[in-house]
Write a structure and sequence with these properties.
mainly alpha; rod-shaped
């Protein structure tokens, strides 16, 4: 799946669900306000006014319209960021090539150098029975 579609799907789902819940809460708040504002009877002997009719009409419309508008906004924002701002995810780094095996001639040369250095170190260190230790 294209990375842009993944971002739209994820962010659109989150925004739509949050705003649908918020729309449901606002609808319930509007219903409570309308019930509190309607008089019990407009005239004596008249049937009571049903304030619930408008609340029932608003019930599914507000959460669905808020969810739809949020998805539309997310799509527009993601397309703007993708095409205008060029905010694209960075590609994964390329795999590092394995270092080549050392050349056999180089390995032999290193071994010879180590042997030569060890022989030189043995030749330059004084032995414990040398004349410097016997003078004291």
């Amino acid at each position: 799946m294209h990375p842009l579609l993944k971002r739209i799907l994820l962010n659109g789902t989150i925004a739509a669900s949050l705003l649908a819940v918020l729309g449901f809460g606002l609808t319930e708040l509007a219903r409570m306000w309308m019930v509190a504002q309607t008089p019990a009877r407009a005239q004596p002997g008249a049937p009571p006014v049903a304030a619930d009719d408008m609340g029932d009409a608003l019930g599914p419309r507000v959460p669905l319209s808020m969810a739809a508008w949020s998805v539309g906004f997310v799509v527009a924002a993601e397309l703007f960021m993708w095409f205008v701002l060029k905010r694209r995810p960075a590609p994964p780094p390329a795999a590092q090539p394995k270092p080549a095996a050392p050349d056999p001639a180089e390995v032999l040369l290193e071994q010879l150098m180590l042997e030569a250095e060890s022989k030189q170190a043995l030749a330059t260190t004084p032995s414990p029975g040398s004349s410097e230790n016997t003078r004291a």
